[in-house]
Amino acid sequence: MGKSDVLATAVTLAALGGIIIGGIAPSASGQAETPPAGVVKTVPGSTLFRQYCASCHGDSGKGDGAVAPHLRVRPTDLTKFTQQNKGTFPADRLAGVIDGRNVARTHGRSDMPVWGDAFMKSSEGGDEETVKVRIRELVKYIESIQERPPSGGASHDTRPIG
Predict the structure, then answer these.
(1) Does the pTM of the predicted model rise above 0.70?
(2) Mean pLDDT of 19-31
């Protein structure tokens, strides 16, 4: 295992540790708040991004996070998806990549963690609906940081993944 493999593993473990330790936020009384049964606790996409994505993708999403120079493959610039897709934000495809559980890895392995599995194992009681909500919030945040094409009119891509 090379130096970059060790660092990539450490980054992944640190991110997963944030899921397990970061878990449920304490309330004003200092007690952890657990949502009632059947209610999914929503966490803002910006918070999820800072907690799980910024170390690699950077605070701005441009792929310039603190650990980016130590990875084998530079993290993707997340601000260019709309430009790269002719003014259309690929929300469903991005959700599939973030989830990672159903993405065919035809071009080798990905250094990005499989966040669907990680969110499922989180201390917040990650059932399937919670995972979907967290990924949807991340996708909405990433859409909000897009560099808009000069023509301006970006639309929302609702095509199914596959």
Answers:
(1) no
(2) 42
